[in-house]
Amino acid sequence: GENVEQHPSTLSVQEGDSAVIKCTYSDSASNYFPWYKQELGKGPQLIIDIRSNVGEKKDQRIAVTLNKTAKHFSLHITETQPEDSAVYFCAASPEQLTFGSGTQLTVLP
Amino acid sequence: GAVVSQHPSWVICKSGTSVKIECRSLDFQATTMFWYRQFPKQSLMLMATSNEGSKATYEQGVEKDKFLINHASLTLSTLTVTSAHPEDSSFYICSAARTGSEAFFGQGTRLTVV
Known about the structure:
The structure holds two protein chains of two kinds.
Chain A: E1 4-7, E2 10-14, E3 19-25, E4 32-38, E5 45-51, E6 56-59, E7 62-67, E8 72-77, E9 86-92, E10 98-99, E11 103-108
Parallel strand pairs in A: 2-11
Antiparallel strand pairs in A: 1-3, 3-8, 4-5, 4-9, 6-7, 7-8, 9-10, 9-11
Chain B: E1 4-7, E2 10-13, E3 19-25, E4 32-38, E5 44-51, E6 57-58, E7 67-73, E8 76-81, E9 90-97, E10 103-105, E11 109-113
Parallel strand pairs in B: 2-11
Antiparallel strand pairs in B: 1-3, 3-8, 4-5, 4-9, 5-6, 7-8, 9-10, 9-11
């Protein structure tokens, strides 16, 4: 089955700086790669996703890149704000989602 | 975006009783719904996958007689934790798949068994 590894497990950045979270996957059949933001005590919220026929996707301050050859994809958040502080999960899917272990992002004011 | 509503958001029950959690897709039809369990500071662990009108598929190690899943319609799935024990205390989250692999999550249910 699919295996997704996510790094780092914790990340602290100063407000206004950029944050990058990286994930690798094992199943070359995976074709859908979403990113979720989870705040304490809440369910994950889809923030951006990318499919295997695209190399990069951007939505305002958030971007995701995908390297199919290397089987890795990354989340980039620019101009970070304190409200970006949360746990972020990557996932990969040939059919059903397999999640990474999560990254606790803290944006320091 | 698509909305998935999960109810209740938190519940406290006595050991030995059963608890039902509902998951509804409010503005789309979900052919597949998923149930996850999440322990503190950990990732989501898939418990089972349910398709409307058919029996749920449980992940290895998940007791199907303890965690009863019913997917009665394209907008509703329920998870019943039967004969709950303190070790069943956890955060349970459902998600509903819209098209392809797109999945949207409910707000989660914090279950505490005392």
